[in-house]
UniProtKB/TrEMBL annotation:
Record carries keyword Ribosomal protein: no
Metal-binding is among the record's keywords: yes
Family the UniProt entry places it in: Belongs to the metallo-beta-lactamase superfamily.
Organism: Nocardioides endophyticus
Keyword terms: Hydrolase, Metal-binding, Zinc
Cofactors (names): Zn(2+)
Xref: Gene3D superfamilies: Ribonuclease Z/Hydroxyacylglutathione hydrolase-like (3.60.15.10)
Protein name: MBL fold metallo-hydrolase
Domain of life: Bacteria
Amino acid sequence: MTLSATQPPSERERLTIARPDSAASPFTAIDVLQPARDIDGGYGARLRALRTAAADFKSEFLTTGKPDYVETFDLTGVPYPTKFGLWRAAVTPAPLLKITNRLTVIRWTETGGRVRTLLFEPSDGRLGANTPYLVKLYNSLPKQIRDREITTHATVKSVLANLGIKPQDVDYLAFDHLHTQDVRRWIGTTTPQPDLSPDAPVEPYFPNAKLLVQRYELEAMADLHPLQVPWYQPETYRDLRPEGLLPLDGDVLLGPGVAFLSTPGHAYGNHSLVLNTDTGVWVMSENVIAAEAMTPEHSKIPGLARWARSIGQEVILNANTIETTAEQYNSIIIEKAIADPAQADPRFLQFFPTSELTGLFLNPGTKPTFSHLHLKHGQF
């Protein structure tokens, strides 16, 4: 089967995507933000309403408590086009910048005493590299540059082994969106896979885990728009174990101080992880790739502050597919309104990009002014 970005959707074969179990969601729906998203009057009117709704959400969210433990772990550093990550704003000759992808491990205790474990951004780097856009990008780089731009710090398995977390103890997996992600090894398949297990279905590494994903994004895999095609591996979602999937419909509270908010834009199925910690509220997604993209007036990256000021925009989008640019802007404002100021430098916010801009001498003019690098809350 071949999916081509040049074929109109009507001429592409529609994939059959694994259908999840029909069990009801175990999470509490959050209804504060959706009315503001739905109001008439266009994106400008919604933006004004969302600023107020985000403040209302934050007030309620702070009363839910805190998770027991949160910590980030570096997985990989990868190259990414500057024109996407610092959309239109950066003044640099560097066509690429570098981003660091991180795993976040979250644990909380339910009312009945059961401990839950969520892995946020558990990227399988080896399989993710098969994404069409990444294949093209990596193959275009000379080896000496590729070796500098692409670095491996750890794997999901090694992080969990060091923490002492057994695969069967992981309850949930999630990504802010499914660009580049292939989860077959994590949640298993119902049929043999020629590249992984040609003679038998893939056994799940996390046998009890469910992938939390916005329903729209999962269903959209069946017939991607040409703008989306280079960034997904839809065929890898065809044979997933249905019991390993748990679709979400918008905003949900997972546990004390742990929530997902629908923040479409970078990808239409994007959602942001919101955490209440000892230092205040943190937000994680890839809607922007640097904390300073939330407050560009304080950025020393050449071009960012001037561009934001001249164009009258208060954030710098991470825009590769540009599925719904205005909606992404509004989503970032939600994130900006919720995140607390960073303790290390209150000019910046506790917004932790799931792919954080990382300085590299090969990419002049892209060194971040401020980086979070690591987050830890509570004890494991």
